[in-house]
Design brief:
Length: 417
């Protein structure tokens, strides 16, 4: 009997040790470009998809935001994903077999599990104080599968700082009515537009150190003075949504026009205002927090984009606004063509220093920045969402207009060197 008990104890110790190894895949390791291994991609259905209402129930100009559900589709995994930017609904799709190819015809196409629905139930613009309606454009921020819930956020698009509320809760049953709760305010250190974007869960070993179970942030949305001028990060507990008002948030990092990540109108490869930030990933076991987006690597210019070199530098008719060389986009705004997909990699230990008061939130700097390519490279290189499956260590990236007007979903595995 004593021998049997000793064997049971030894097996228990071995089991605990193996579990710790599986949790700590990158013990104390900072991740680098080589840790991201491209696996493959899949397409999304073209044409109209059944939905609750509206005529923009399509994936074209959509795929923002995305949220992977490792337990979805009867344990096979699924992806919640946004529709056309004008309708801003959410659908759930399968994750088909991934194919690594630069030929679109080789890729498999996801199937619809749940059609498009407005999971905010008409509350998307109710982001002012006391839930008053914001009467201008509100766009999707982030989406996160959190247990049996979906945690979402929205951003006012062109706003000098009036947004007050940002996050909401819904169920994973998209067609269910009455399960929406929100909008809610998170934190009080800065305005809502600093927090109202991407999200990811915080690994268990970091939750107490950073003061939350999830990370949220945002930045690089007009108007610049009312958002982070570089990546931002705040730790919070999604379980506090609807329970504590405002939801407590621990500041980990943010930047302002007074204290930007880099000179906003420069050609600094670290950052300029032509950058877009669309995702955050906090891999289990590593010390790295990775922010994803795109970066303008050409000459910075504010104005109207044009592909006509004869117009560059000239004023637009009846205005003092100049033309900027940018064949990828003709909108008025920040330009620095060409654009590259980019990762800003941060050391989570710096976030601890900020939380403890030993470092200013704007003094944190990435330990490394790198560009990466995808098999399909449209002229207007744009990432519109990211999501991380911690169970399988798979990173999902939605790429705008990789399949005509449709997005493509690319998948990387995050592996040790």
């Amino acid at each position: 009997m004593k021998r049997f008990r000793a064997m049971v104890l030894i097996l228990a110790v071995i089991t605990i040790f193996l579990n710790l190894l599986s949790m700590n895949a990158f013990p104390g390791e900072l991740l680098h470009k080589d840790n991201l291994k491209y696996i493959g991609a899949f397409r999304l259905p073209h044409g109209k998809i059944a939905c609750d209402s509206g005529d923009k129930c399509i994936f074209a100009y959509g795929a923002r935001p995305i949220a992977v559900d490792a337990s979805g589709n009867k344990g096979k995994g699924s992806l919640f994903i946004g529709s056309h930017i004008y309708s801003q609904k959410i659908a759930e799709v399968t994750i088909p077999n991934l194919v690594n190819s630069n030929n679109l015809n080789d890729l498999n196409t996801a199937q619809i599990l749940q059609s498009f629905f407005d999971i905010t139930e008409g509350n998307r613009n109710n982001v002012m104080k006391d839930g008053a309606r914001y009467d201008q454009t509100v766009v999707p921020g982030g989406l996160l599968v959190y247990g049996d819930k979906l945690i979402g956020s929205v951003q006012t698009y062109y706003d000098p700082g009036n947004q007050y509320l940002s996050h909401y809760v819904s169920s994973k049953n998209l067609s269910k009515v009455g399960d929406f709760a929100g909008m809610y305010k998170i934190g009080s250190a800065v305005g809502a537009r600093f927090l109202a974007g991407y999200m990811d869960t915080i690994p268990l070993q970091w939750q107490e150190k950073l003061g939350g179970t999830a990370i949220t942030g945002g930045g690089t949305i007009p108007i610049t003075s009312a958002t982070s001028v570089g990546p931002s990060a705040f730790a919070f507990n999604p379980s506090d949504l609807g329970r504590i008002n405002p939801v407590p948030a621990n500041t980990l990092m943010y930047y302002s026009l007074k204290n930007p990540l880099a000179a906003p109108t420069s050609t600094n490869p670290m950052f300029n205002l032509a950058a877009e930030l669309r995702g955050v990933v906090f891999p289990d076991g590593s010390d790295s927090v990775l922010f994803f987006g795109r970066m303008g690597v050409g000459e910075y210019c504010y104005g109207i984009g044009t592909s006509d070199l004869t117009l560059v530098g000239k004023s637009t008719p009846g205005s003092t606004t100049h033309y900027c060389y940018d064949p990828a986009g003709s909108s008025k705004g920040h330009h620095a063509y060409p654009y590259k997909y980019q990762v800003w990699a941060y050391n989570a230990h710096d976030f601890i220093k900020v939380r403890k008061g030993g470092m200013n939130p704007w003094d944190v700097r990435p330990y490394e920045i790198w560009n990466f390519e995808l098999p399909f490279q449209p002229k207007n290189a744009e990432i519109v969402g990211t999501s991380y499956d911690k169970k399988n260590r798979r990173l999902y990236i939605s790429q705008a207009c990789g399949d005509g007007d449709n997005p493509i979903v690319h998948v990387f595995e995050i592996v040790p060197e």
